[in-house]
Amino acid sequence: MEMKELLKQGIAEALDKAIAAGTLPAGDYPAISLEVPPQKEFGDFATNIAMQSARIARRAPKMIAEAIVAQMDYPWLDRAEIAGAGFINFFLKHDVIYDTLKNILAAGAEYGKAPLREEDTVQVEYVSANPTGPLHVGHGRGAAYGSALVNLLRAAGCNVQAEYYINDAGNQMNNLAASVNARYLQLLGREADIPENGYHGHDIIDTAQAIIDQDGDAYLNMPEEERLELFKDRAYVEKLKALKRDLAAFNVHFDNWFSERTLHPDAIHGACDVLKQRGKLYEKDGALWLKSTDYGDDKDRVVIRDNGVPTYLAADIAYHKNKYDRGFGSLINIWGADHHGYVARVKAAMAALGYDPEKLEILLLQMVSLFRDGKPVKMSKRTGQAITLNELIEEVGADAARYFFIMRSLDTQLDFDLDLAKSHSNENPVYYIQYAHARIYSIYRQVQEAGDALDMNWADVQWDKLKDEQELELIKKMAAFPEEIQRAARERAPHRIAHFAHELAGLFHTFYNHCRIIQEDKELEKARLALVTAVRITIANSLAILGVSAPEKM
C-alpha cells in the first residue's frame, strides 16, 4: 500500500476508534485529505480533517485532533503533532517511506497506474478538423491535450475510446472539390477562379498537380459535375491520409475514425423522427426547428432547412445520438473556444432526445499565440498562410511542441515561445525533464566505467542508507504520483502531470548536485542507484502520459 493511502487508512481507523471510545460522537465525517506541508519541519503529510469535522462533531477542531491523535499508535508512524487551530502533522518512519521505492521498482512501467475498470467507459472525441487541408497550430493544441487526456484517463483506470469525427459531408467538401478543380484548370492553362469559400493553401495546388502528374489532362473535357465528384473523392482520400500521417508523427492515435457521411441521410432522419415523436420539433417558414429554448438555449435552432437540406446541427444531433446509443458511461468532446456557443444547443438536443445531457462533457480549448524573438508570429515564412502543425514540429520537435501545448490549463490562452521550446537549457521545461532522465542513464554508464557491476536486483538493498534530506524528498515526491494521476484525471488536467514531472526533475537535479552516486561505500552506492532508477521510472511514466519521449542520451 502506498504510504499516503496507508496514512489515510490509519486516520480513518483512529477516527472510528475515537467514536467507539466515546471521545467523538458518531456522524457523517468528511473524506480525509492529505497535503504535503510547504515546510519540512511540519512533517511528511498534514490533514485538516479536524477542522472540517467541527460542525459534525460539535467540538473545537483542536479537541477533535487530540481525540484522533490519541488513537494513532502505529509502528510506521514516528509521531503526530497538532498545529495551529487543529491541523495534524504526521512524521512517518523511514521504513514506510522506503516501501515506496520498493513499489516503484517492482511496478516499473506500471507504477502510478490504477487497474483497468472495464465498466468505466469513456469516449474522448478530439481534433475532428475538416479533412480539407493541413492541421494548424490550434489543432495541435487540441491534439496534444486530447491524446494526453486519453493517456491520463487510461492510467487512472478508465476504459477509454479515442475518436476522430471526420467532417466529410457538406459544403466544405464541395468547396474542397471546387478549389482543386480551379487549381487543376489553372495549371493546365485555363482560366478559373477559386470559389468564395474555397481553400487557397499551397496544398491545394499540390493536390491538383498530383492529379496532373498521374493522369495528365484526362479530365479536362469531362463534364464539370463529374470532374468535381472525382476530385472530391481524390482530394478527400489524399487529405485524410495526410492528416492521419501528421497526427501519427505527433504521437496522436485514434481507436475509431467516424465518418459524417455515414449519418446521411438515414441517421439524421432517424434522429429527427425521434424528436418529432417527442414533440421537440416544429415547422416554421418551411423549415424544421428544435425547441432548444426549452432546455436553456438562447433561441430555437433550425435542424432541416426550408430546402430540405440538414444543417450542421442536424448531423451533430445524429452523431451524438449515435454516441449515446453506443453505451459509453461518459462522453468528452474537446472543442475550440470559438465553439462555445454551440455547447448549449447540442446539450439541448440530447435532452430533447431523452438522454442525460450531463453525461456529455464539452471542454473548450483557448487560443494559441506563437512568439519568436518576443514578437507574435502569425504567418508561415514558406507559404504566407497560417503556420501548420508540421512546420511547428519541424522547428521545435514533436516532444517540445506537445509539452508546451499541454503545460498550461486548457482554459487559459497559451503563449508559445518558439525560442524557448528549441533551447537546450534548464529554462526549457521539457529539456529539463528529459535531461534528468538521460542523466540517470549517464549515471549507469559512469558506474560501469568505474568498474562496478550494474546490478538491477534490488532485493538486498540497505534502504536505511538513504537518510539525506534530498533523498527523502525525492521518495516522497514519487509517492504522490498515483494520487496525482487520479486527481489530474478527475480535473481533466494533463498539465498537472507536466508540472509534476518538472518538479520531480528539479528535485532530482538538486539531489544529483548534492549527493555522489559512485561511492567507496558500495551499499550506499547500491541504495542510491535504486533511488535514481525509481526516479527514472517515474519520470518516464509521467512523460508517457504526456506523449513525450524519455531519451537515454541527449
TrEMBL record:
GO terms for cellular component: cytoplasm. CDD domains: Anticodon_Ia_Arg, ArgRS_core. Pfam families: Arg_tRNA_synt_N (PF03485), DALR_1 (PF05746), tRNA-synt_1d (PF00750). Its EC number is 6.1.1.19. Residues 5-92 form the Arginyl tRNA synthetase N-terminal domain. Keywords: Aminoacyl-tRNA synthetase, ATP-binding, Cytoplasm, Ligase, Nucleotide-binding, Protein biosynthesis. Its main location: cytoplasm. It catalyses: tRNA(Arg) + L-arginine + ATP = L-arginyl-tRNA(Arg) + AMP + diphosphate. It is found in: Cytoplasm. Transmembrane segments: none annotated. GO terms for molecular function: arginine-tRNA ligase activity; ATP binding. Gene3D superfamilies: Arginyl tRNA synthetase N-terminal domain, HUPs, Isoleucyl-tRNA Synthetase, Domain 1. InterPro entries: aa-tRNA-synth_I_CS (IPR001412), Arg-tRNA-ligase (IPR001278), Arg-tRNA-synth_N (IPR005148), Arg-tRNA-synth_N_sf (IPR036695), ArgRS_core (IPR035684), DALR_anticod-bd (IPR008909), Rossmann-like_a/b/a_fold (IPR014729), tRNAsynth_Ia_anticodon-bd (IPR009080). Residues 433-554 form the DALR anticodon binding domain. It comes from the Bacteria. One of its GO terms (biological process) is arginyl-tRNA aminoacylation. A motif ('HIGH' region) lies at residues 129-139. It is an enzyme of class 6 (ligase). NCBIfam families: argS. Monomer. Belongs to the class-I aminoacyl-tRNA synthetase family. This is Arginine--tRNA ligase. It comes from Megasphaera stantonii. The lineage of its organism: Bacteria, Bacillati, Bacillota, Negativicutes, Veillonellales.
